[in-house]
Design brief:
The radius of gyration is 20 Å and the shape is globular. It has ten helices and 17 strands. Strand 10 (about 170-175), helix 4 and strand 11 form a beta-alpha-beta unit. The protein has helices at about 40-50, 145, 150-165, 180-190, 205-215, 225-235, 245-255, 280-285, 295-305, 325-330; strands at about 1-5, 15-20, 30-40, 75-80, 95, 100, 115, 130, 135-140, 170-175, 195-200, 215-220, 240-245, 255-265, 285-290, 315-320, 340-344. The strands form four sheets. Strands 3, 4, 5, 8, 9, 16 and 17 form a seven-stranded mixed sheet that branches. It comes from Guptibacillus hwajinpoensis.
Length: about 350
């Protein structure tokens, strides 16, 4: 089969198009013919060593074992089944829940043995992939490409909103609002949980599109008076921040939060390290929340919201599988709206 593998830590040159044996499903697994795989920050940071190097980059302490086929937002069709899998599942169109875990329901994402497809297992930058049958779920939409954009980004966004206990009528600031996670944060917070959303983007030409997704106000992080504009737009401090940017907007976020406000982060595209004056946090009674991925129940609630039309797929651009280098390079450019998807 055709696949794109990461050979080690480094730049785009570490992504190689190769021929691999088609994997064989174990007794409890199925073989999926991959139709679409959306790109996430996590596979780029894994390659670049942002989670650590020298065998330490990945979701498990032992790190990624190279070569590794990345890719975690996967849709496709079951074409072969393991001996313990119901034969009726052959031919199903599925979306893959992206990790294995022995954790109890509700805490499976924080289990010590949580292992991620595309990091601890070969993933979706390939024509075929094997995965446990019980983690292959019905697609929320009939289209492979559109259904591939929700697995990691969507579950991460949903978990952020739930972790932050967003309530109807509250005001939420979403950073990186035009990105994969950010655009879903806007939709979930506004259209499912009933919040007012202040979307932070770079290019204000995206204002119309962001409002179509559910944003009440759209502001640019390039403004010298961003904090003032946020407070003015809301008529006062805001209730919560859903952040994927990190350092670049951290101090602004704490400044515009009300007393008792919540700051939830799941990314650091604008800087992985910051400075924190603890007085700001405790004098304002601010809750800081770290969040990544989510639970099986949250994933299923997300899929229902997608099926019900409350959360829509936003795709900026697609690439053929063999152009994975170009796709990852494009992914890192600013000004996009939504997800980048590889098609096999």
């Amino acid at each position: 089969m055709k696949a794109v593998q990461v050979s080690g830590y480094g730049g785009l040159d570490q992504l190689e198009v190769v021929e691999r044996e088609i994997p064989k499903p174990k007794a409890n697994e199925v073989l999926i013919q991959v139709k679409a795989c959306a790109i996430n920050n996590t596979e780029i940071w894994m390659r670049e060593g942002a989670y650590g190097t020298e065998g330490k980059s990945g979701w498990r302490p032992e790190g990624v074992q190279f070569p590794r086929i990345p890719g975690s937002d996967i849709t496709g069709q079951i074409i072969e089944i393991g001996t313990d899998v119901d034969v009726k599942r052959k031919g199903e169109d599925v979306v893959l829940f992206p990790f294995t875990s022995s954790g109890e329901p509700g805490s499976e994402h924080i289990s010590e043995d949580m292992s991620f497809i595309g990091s601890e297992y070969d993933g979706g930058y390939a024509e075929y992939v094997v995965w446990p049958a019980n983690l292959c779920l019905p697609m929320a939409l009939p289209n492979y490409e559109e259904s591939a954009v929700f697995s990691v980004s969507g579950m991460t966004a949903w978990h952020m909103v739930e972790q932050s206990a967003i309530k109807r009528g509250e005001t939420v600031m979403v950073t990186g609002a035009n990105g994969g996670v950010g655009s879903l944060n806007v939709q979930i917070a506004a259209n499912v949980f009933g919040a007012k959303v202040i979307a932070i983007v770079g290019d204000l030409s995206l204002e119309g599109k962001m409002k179509e997704l559910g944003a009440t106000h759209v502001l640019s992080y390039r403004s010298d008076k961003l904090a003032e504009e946020i407070i003015e737009a809301n008529g006062g401090p805001i209730d919560a921040v859903l952040d994927v940017v990190g350092d670049a907007l951290f101090h602004t976020s704490l400044h515009v939060l009300r007393k008792g406000g919540r700051f939830c982060t799941s990314g650091s595209a604008g800087g992985q390290k910051t400075e924190l004056d603890f007085r700001t946090m405790y004098l304002k009674h601010i809750t800081l929340i770290g969040s990544v991925l989510g639970t099986r129940d949250e994933f299923e609630r997300l899929m229902k919201a997608v099926t019900d039309g409350k959360v829509k797929p936003i795709i900026d651009r697609t690439f053929p599988l063999e152009e994975a280098r170009e796709a990852q390079s494009y992914f890192k450019k600013s000004g996009k709206l939504g997800k980048i998807v590889l098609l096999t």
